[in-house]
Structure formats: C-alpha cells, structure tokens
Amino acid sequence: MHAIKVHVVSKGRKYLYMRFRCPLTGEEETRSTGETSPKEAAKAAAKWEAELQEGRYRKSAAMAWDQFREFYTDNWLVTLAPGTAVNYCATLNKFEEHCKPKRLGDLTTPRVTAFAAKLREAKCRPATIARHLRCLKAVSNWAHGEKLLAAVPTFKMPKRVAGAKLMRGRPITLEEFERMLQKVAENAPDEALWTFYLRGLWLSGLRLSESLTLSWDAKPGAIVVDLSGAYPMLRIPAEAEKGHRDRILPITPDFAELLQRVPDPQRRGRVFKVEGNRTKVGSTVSAIGKAAGVVVDDTDGKRKFASAHDLRRAFGARWSRKVMPTVLRELMRHSSITTTMGYYVGDDAEATAKALWEAQGDTLGDTSQNRALQKSGENRRKSLHSQ
Asked: What distance in Å separates the CA atoms of residue 230 and residue 201, rounded to the nearest whole number?
C-alpha cells in the first residue's frame, strides 16, 4: 500500500493550508485547514490523511469522468444484480458516446437534454430512452449522495404517445408456442433439454436470467425449487431477481406438474441444463421463434420474432384471466400494481369478448334462442379468422 502523508504549510494567508502528493500520479493537492493555530491545523491534516488512507475522500465535480466510473463501479455497481449492473454500464457507455464527458461535473441538465436528443436521433424507442434516463438519474443521485456531484440534473422522461404499445413484443398464443416446439430440433443442440426448457419458460413466467439460476439445490444466488411443503414454492434471494428482494413465490400447478415429472435422481444442480450464457441462450430461443415464424412486433417494418420474454408475457396474459390483479402482480413480481394493470389487465378485447359470450349461457339460460346466438357469434369468429 502506498503511504499518503499530509503536510501543513503556510501560504502567507489568514489560514494555514495542508497538502499531499499522490504517490500514484505524482499530482499535488492543497486545501485550507480553516485554522490559524498550528496545533488545530495539524488535527485537520490528520483527519484528511485518515480519509485519504481509507479511500473515503474523493474530489467532487472536478473528479475526472474515468476516475468516477472506477469509483462508482468499485463501490456501488458490485452490489447490484449482474443484469442490473450491465444495464447501468450500457447507459454510461451511451452517455460517453454521445456527450463525451471529461469530468463528473459535465453531468448537467443541458448534457442530459442533449443525451435524450441524441438517443431520439438514433431512432431509439421511447421506452429505451426512458430506461437510459432512469439509469443515469440513479447514477446522478448516487454521486450526489456521496457528495461528489453538487446538484442532480433535471430529467424529463419521454411521454408515451397515446395508443402506443407498452410491450416491445406480445404474449404468444398456444398455437404459436406449439410451432416453436416443432422447430427445436432444427435450432438447438439437444432437443430434449431445450423442449423442457421452453416448456419451463412457458409455464413458470421466469425471466431469462432467472431461469438459468433455477436450481434443485440451495446455493448462493440460486432460485431454489422447494417441493417439500403443502404447496410447491420458489425461494428467490434478492441477488437473483430484478426486484432485489428476498421472496418466497408459489409455483403454479402446471409448472409444478412439469417439475414433478423429473425423476428424483435427476433433481441435482440446475433445473434447466441448457448450455450457454444468458446471451447465447436468449439467441437460441429467438432463433427458434424466427424459425417458427412467430412475429411479435412489426413496428416501422422491423420484425421482431418471439423471444424468451414473450413466453413470460404469455404466462402473464394467461394468468390475468384466472386470478385477481394483486395475485398476478405477485406472480409476475412487479414492483407496482400499475405495471401489472398496464401490461396484462384489460388489454385483450377479444379474450374479454370470448369470456362474455361463453358466460352468456349462464346468465340467460340454455334456451334455443341463446344457443342460436352463440352459434352465430362462433361462426362469425371462424369466418373472420379464416380470411
């Protein structure tokens, strides 16, 4: 460890000064002790020296941007879930690319406004711009809390255009999912493992990164299957999921049935034994979706094929018809009921209409007139779908 020594010096001013030379860079820094007494100035110097030795002192907004990124990474990013840390790094990289900050003090309101404008010029979606701004705002708040940034810039989040879709994809249908299963053999190295994996995504509602940590065994950072109680559960540690909260989550009956088909001797290690990291596994799922011709978004002529997250969306859409929004929120692990309501509740008019028509027999009775009305509606729907 390099020794740091702070010396008290006189600059011919009212207050005595203290200074030190960085043993790594050779740069000298001075500051006022605020004291006229050599004894009190020595105490102030000793305090500053202790801060330097312990790494608690940093220059404020004058800190070089590269130095700040290193300090932020070492002291905060390492505490976040890996996926979250990746998102923050991506935002900081984008900010550097478009705004080229030299010092932390360059993180200002005009720069943030320019950053948002550059993202729009790059044809980023409003949701993507909002995500980058949220990450940058969180970084700014952290720097301000650490006394490194004097003021947090103003962030104006983009508003969603009325009628614009919330989702980048959509919930896929059962027929589309079955088409994907038929394409596993052509696009995945092990048909049995990948078929089991796709069924697991379809039935569990797990995010891609979460599915790859799902384990039969209790180990650090793993989401653990627990079939020992009256009801099957998932035990989710804070570091393994997006919400950063320790949770116990009920397993839906159909997913529990899939898990219980696994023979006892095979219930060791990861539940889904597909090989590859998050990026590779996600690419394989998307390749299967593309081979099956399952298009989930066609905005601006850019076709997006079914991905792992669209299987999660399908899980949410199915269960939104079976449970109350508060239960669905727990299943999806949304931080706010607003998210659940916005994405999964009341958004499928055709499914709502189908439920109304099927319920009609219960409300009006099983009459010949009612049966004829239902038959007419069914024939019309078949006709429309065949066009």
From this structure: 24
**What CA–CA distance (Å, rounded) separates 213 from 61?**
40
- For residue 318, give the amino acid letter: R
Do 49 and 77 lie in one domain? The reply is: no
* Mean pLDDT, residues 311-319: 91
Co-location of 217 and 253 in the same domain: yes
**Do 274 and 308 belong to one domain?**
yes
Contact 232, 248 (CB under 8 A): no
Q: Which of 37-41, 58-62, 143-147, 174-178 has the highest mean pLDDT?
A: 174-178
Rounded Cα distance between 326 and 353, Å, is 23
4 near 53, Cβ under 8 Å?
yes
Cα gap 61→114, rounded to integer Å: 19
At residue 124, φ and ψ (nearest 5 deg) are: -70, 145
pLDDT in tens, 285-309: 999 999 999 999 887 677 899 999 9
User: Is residue 231 in some structural domain?
Assistant: yes
What residue numbers bound the domain in which 372 lies? Answer: 356-386
How far, in Å, CA of 344 to CA of 205, rounded?
A: 13
Residue 21 has a pLDDT of: 79
Do 141 and 206 fall within a single domain? no
Instruction: Assign residue 84 the CATH number of its domain.
Output: 1.10.150
| Range in 111-125, 210-224, 340-354 the model is least confident about | 340-354
Task: Indicate if 322 and 291 belong to the same structural domain.
Answer: yes
CATH code where residue 203 lies: 1.10.443.10
Task: Supply the pLDDT for residue 110.
Answer: 93
